[in-house]
Specification:
Layout: H1 3-14, E1 19-23, H2 26-34, E2 40-45, H3 54-68, E3 72-77, H4 81-84, H5 99-106, H6 109-113, E4 127-130, H7 132-135, H8 140-147, H9 152-156, H10 159-166, H11 173-189, E5 193-197, H12 201-215, E6 220-224, H13 250-258, H14 265-272, H15 277-284, H16 289-305, H17 307-322, E7 331-334, H18 341-347, H19 354-362, E8 366-368, E9 371-372, H20 382-385, E10 389-392, E11 396-401
Parallel strand pairs: 2-3, 2-5, 3-4, 5-6, 7-11
Antiparallel strand pairs: 1-6, 8-9, 8-10, 10-11
Helix pairs in contact: 11-12, 13-16, 13-17, 14-15, 14-16, 16-17
């Protein structure tokens, strides 16, 4: 790649508007990229949930952008720091996770991200590392040496700690150790660049401090904006259980994106697709935001599930949601004479329990062949209900088969 082409690709990454801060400076970072020198990038995530969401996908797509420029990139899974618990933006200490909890959470992460990270590339594949590899081996003397690089006052500068002190809420010592441990990741991997969200700047700077003091090496910290609604400021968050998660199948992923507020259209286009900036602006300016969201949903589903599945998901959405129709391939569930509608909903996966099924019925979200059910005591019988379609919510259909 010649210098002119390299500069064009670098500008495409830096000017997209997702990367919003560069430490020490954007100019120095760009100069380093244009020098042709190969750098080692990393981004980390703690396994606090079984699924990553589109907020994580945004940053991993950026990581892949840098890999395509020829840089070494690492996706770090915080299987050790996940047991400590990042105090960032928390008004109280996180519930401690066991090693088994953490392992269970991240076991499907690589499957969820395989379509955005090139783990199997013949040249320069994405590396996957786990920070238990080095953090679990630190002895107490080494931990004290690391801690000697920071003051209590520095730790107390974190907003969430100040708020807890004012609210007379406890701060636990292990929470002070979290930025220390995450910072040591940079040292252990000898990185040149850390990519993080705005909520992780404090921890990333701790790594910059340790790398400078232990190895006399400077590290760039590049900061990506968190995906948030342009109008309300609401964030997409794994820990809060909100957002669009990467373990959804194509139809549910499409539907989840369509359910996003209008204020999420531009941030999701910018962060989770590589649609050009010009085309994004054209979509955002559409008279009906629904049309822009359909374009967005198709593009994201295409990335994670392929073009065919994206087309099927769009067709399904149009027929079942916009036209209020019934999908062609409705799952059939067999029942016996005399079973209740509650039994059927649980057996078919439309409800988790009888109380959950009752609640959905009481809220008016359950119908049989388009007719709303208003009694949870309904008993299904072959004469009236065989072959009928039960619908729960907007997208969940099951056929009754005796």
């Amino acid at each position: 790649m010649d210098k002119k082409e390299l500069e064009k690709k670098v500008d495409e990454i830096l000017e997209r508007g997702v990367l919003i801060d560069f430490l020490p400076t954007k100019e120095e970072f760009k100069e380093k990229l244009l020098s042709g020198e190969k750098m080692r990038f990393y981004i980390g995530a703690d396994p606090t949930a079984t699924a990553l969401h589109l907020g994580h996908a945004q940053n991993l797509i950026i990581l892949e952008d840098f890999r395509k420029l020829g840089h070494e990139v690492i996706f770090l899974i915080g299987d050790f720091t996940g047991m400590i618990g990042d105090p960032t933006d928390k008004s109280s200490a996180r519930v401690r996770q066991t090693h088994e909890d953490v392992e269970s959470n991240f076991k499907n992460w690589l499957e969820q991200t395989k379509n955005i990270l090139s783990f199997d590339a013949e040249e320069n594949p994405v590396q996957v590392k786990y920070n238990s590899e080095w953090l679990s081996k630190l002895n107490f003397e080494e931990t004290i040496d690391l801690a000697s690089n920071f003051t209590v006052q520095q730790m107390l500068e974190r907003d969430m700690f100040e708020k807890r002190i004012k609210g007379n809420k406890p701060i636990y010592l292990h929470e002070f150790l979290y930025p220390l441990m995450q910072g040591y990741d940079s040292v252990a991997m000898d990185v040149d660049v850390e990519l993080c969200g705005t909520d992780q700047i404090f921890n990333a700077l701790a790594g910059r401090t340790l790398l400078r003091k232990i190895k006399n090496k400077e590290k760039f910290v590049i900061v990506a904006n968190l995906i948030q609604d342009e109008k309300t400021g609401e964030l997409m968050s794994k820990s809060n259980g909100t957002g669009v998660f990467l373990d959804l199948d194509s139809q549910n992923l499409y539907g989840a994106i369509m359910a996003q507020s209008d204020g999420m259209i531009r941030p999701l286009f910018l962060g989770c697709t590589r649609v050009s900036l010009e085309e994004i602006e054209e979509n955002v300016k559409m008279e009906n935001p629904r049309d822009a969201k359909m374009r967005l949903a198709f593009e994201i589903v295409r990335i994670f599930h392929g073009e065919e599945k994206a087309s099927e998901a769009q067709e399904d959405f149009v027929s079942t949601i916009q036209k209020k129709g019934i999908p062609d391939n409705v799952e059939e569930v067999e029942i016996s004479e005399g079973e209740s509608v509650l039994d059927f909903m649980i057996k078919s996966g439309l409800a988790e329990s009888k109380s959950d099924a009752r609640r959905k019925i009481e809220q008016g979200g359950v119908s049989v062949n388009g007719k709303s059910i208003n009694a949870s005591t309904l008993i299904l019988n072959k004469k009236e209900h065989d072959g009928k379609i039960i619908k729960v919510g907007k997208r969940n259909f099951r056929k009754i088969v005796f």
